[in-house]
């Protein structure tokens, strides 16, 4: 299991938390949004997922990974 | 049809817009959120709905009508 913390722009409320954490769960990762910090801590299996796929899942929800 | 514009706190993103406009639609009113202005313009039939019911529908979504 690999852990990364991504800086994500545009997250502003509980709905945003749910959409991002839900999208990560859908692809088989586990995410925890820190709204005030503007970050998403992600745990994922490197044999199953790439960091690119993680970022894409977040960006598809309408947020920018910076 | 009566039109009122309410000042609402806590609306921050597109999900918020959808949740408030959806809640108003559910009770038979029509709402338009102005995120940057922090307002919700509501059109409703006074013979069917009260302003109290309108405010409650918004507050039930987790926002404060001020």
From TrEMBL, chains A, B:
<dbReference type="Pfam" id="PF00403">
    <property type="entry name" value="HMA"/>
</dbReference>
<dbReference type="InterPro" id="IPR036163">
    <property type="entry name" value="HMA_dom_sf"/>
</dbReference>
<dbReference type="GO" id="GO:0006825">
    <property type="term" value="P:copper ion transport"/>
</dbReference>
<protein>
    <submittedName>
        <fullName>Heavy-metal-associated domain-containing protein</fullName>
    </submittedName>
</protein>
<dbReference type="InterPro" id="IPR006121">
    <property type="entry name" value="HMA_dom"/>
</dbReference>
<dbReference type="InterPro" id="IPR000428">
    <property type="entry name" value="Cu-bd"/>
</dbReference>
<feature type="domain" description="HMA">
    <location>
        <begin position="2"/>
        <end position="66"/>
    </location>
</feature>
<keyword id="KW-0479">Metal-binding</keyword>
<dbReference type="GO" id="GO:0005507">
    <property type="term" value="F:copper ion binding"/>
</dbReference>
């Amino acid at each position: 299991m690999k852990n990364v913390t991504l800086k994500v722009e545009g997250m502003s409320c509980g709905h945003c938390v749910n959409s991002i954490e839900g999208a990560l769960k859908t692809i088989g990762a586990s995410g925890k949004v820190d709204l005030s910090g503007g970050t998403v801590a992600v745990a994922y299996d490197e044999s199953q997922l790439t960091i690119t796929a993680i970022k894409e899942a977040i960006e598809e929800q309408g947020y920018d990974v910076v």
